[in-house]
Each structure stands twice: as structure tokens, then as C-alpha cells.
Amino acid sequence: MGLIKIRIHAVMDKPAFMARPNQHHQQQLQSSLQKSGKQRGNYRVKFSKKLSSAEFSYKVKQGEFSKSLNQVQFVNNTVSEAANFLKTGHINRDPAMTSMFRRGTIFATFFLSLIGGGLVCAALVTQHWIEARPWRTPNPQESAGKIHFGLLQGKKDLNVAYGWRTYHVSVGQMIKQDPTVMNRSLWIATLVTTSLALFASALSALLAVLNTATTPRTKIFSVPGIYLMNFLTLILCVTSIITWLAQYYTKLYANVLPKEDTENMWTSEGSAELGYSFWLVVSAGVVHLVSIALVGWGSGGVKDKRLEPIPALEEKTAAAIMLY
């Protein structure tokens, strides 16, 4: 028996056949079409030549009509996606691939949160928020000095032309003994906001791990929570930067020495500079800004903001790997 070419055209009216078989053959065709398991639209089928009842029955049993309709369904889906692209400007992605992509971007924010937290922690423990090179006004050529301190501790090296002498500085004690050196309120605000930024960064990293390994049911623990913690960390870093800049321009730029040194004719006017510890906080703010943009890019353009649930076994395995 030679092959018979079949042309299928999708329409939205009732099926019509140029060579209509009897009712028994129509029931066989309907049963064959239902094996595909999907609801289909109505189609008009045209044959290149009339089929006998035996030929029609044989093709129904072989499932040729179902194969042809599957091809029509594929073409219809392709045309629908192309029309949607022309209308909206984007193509609908596979939900599973979209979910993996979103999880990957969220996992990347985990490393960014670790980097941001490390930068803030380094800024807290290092002693280079401010640096200056003082001198004595009676003998500026023979005298020299180096002083730097952070939010808690610092060091001061002075040479009055008889050799270098090192002194350790406690910032809190220095402010207590001489309130004119630094503004106490601005110092406390910088210290508190920087410490809170470190805590918020740690929570951001924890939420990123949680959303990578599992699918939280509560919004505060899902993607909105990651947004919130990264945004909060960014705000705290910016606040810390602003308060320290205010401290620098109102107090430290003119003098970084306590009263006991200024009475000994030492001065640091105009020599103070912002140290690398300060710029670590600036870098941490930039890192969390990138993290916010990354989360927005990974979850943007999707109406459903929640990640697709994954099987329980895979979820437990992923969580165990992340905890390890």
C-alpha cells in the first residue's frame, strides 16, 4: 500500500471530511485522538484522495491521525509563542528552567552577602578610619608624627626630634577625656550603624542559603526577605558613611590629637585623610547594591514571585549539601 500524504489545517469549527466515514469509524477516530491525553481544538482534515473504509480503519489503528495532530499542536504552540513575542517583547520560558535560573541568582547573592559582611567586619576591627601626619609648630622640620585610629582603637607615633615614641589610643577614652576631638553622638551613630550592617548582612546570607536549598512558605523568609535585608544593609552602610563624613568635616579635618598633645604644640590641621577602613564600608554598600540588582534580575518579569516547589527528597539533599 503506498503512502498517502495528509494535509491538516487548524480551524475552530466542527470537523468536516471530504470523504466522511461511517459512524463506527468516526468513533474509532475519536478514541484514537483521546489517547494523546490533551484537550485539542477541532480540526478539518483533508485527504489527497478518498480513503476506503478499510484504509481509514487501518490508519486510525496505526495512530497516524494522532501523530499528525501532534505536529499541528506543535505548530500552533510555536505560532502562539511567536505572536506573544511580537506583542510583549519576550518569550515565555520553561518554568523549570526559570526556577533553576532564579535559584542560581539567589545563590550568587549568598556569596555577595558574605563579601559584604566581610568588608563591614574588616572595617569594624581595623584601625584606619582616619589617618593624619601631625607636627610640632616650634620645630616642624625636626618633628614628625603618624596617627591613625578606627571606631574603637588606634595608634599614635610621635617624634619630637629625639626618636619615635608609640602610644596606643582608645577612642572611647579619648572622647571621654577630651570631647572636643570628636562628636560623641556621631561616633556612636557610626559605630551602631556599622555593627547593625554586619548583622543584617549575615541575615541576608542566611536567607539566600535558605531560598537556594528550600522553598519557604512565608514571604518574609523568601525573595522579599532577601530584598529587605540587602536593602536594610545598604541603608545602614550609607548611614554609617554619612555620619563619619560629618565627623570628618566638622572635627577631624581640623584636629585629630587629644588636648594633651595640642598643649605640647602639636597640630594636624589639614593633614587628616579618610583611611581604608572607611572605604571598606563604601565597598560593602556597593556589593549589597549589586546583590539587590541581581535578585531583581533573577526574579523579574515573572508574575509568580515564589520559586517553584521541588520534590521533598531533592529539597532535603540540596539543604544537606548547603549546610555541609
Automatic annotation (TrEMBL):
The chain crosses the membrane at residues 106-130, 186-213, 225-246, 276-297. It is found in: Membrane. Pfam families: Clarin-2. GO terms for cellular component: membrane. The lineage of its organism: Eukaryota, Metazoa, Ecdysozoa, Arthropoda, Hexapoda. Keywords: Membrane, Transmembrane, Transmembrane helix. The keyword Chloroplast does not apply. Residues 24-34 have a biased composition (Low complexity). This is Clarin-3. One of its GO terms (biological process) is sensory perception of sound. Belongs to the clarin family. PANTHER family: CLARIN, LD47387P. Residues 20-40 are annotated as: Disordered. Coiled coil: none annotated. The keyword Lipid biosynthesis does not apply. It is a multi-pass membrane protein.
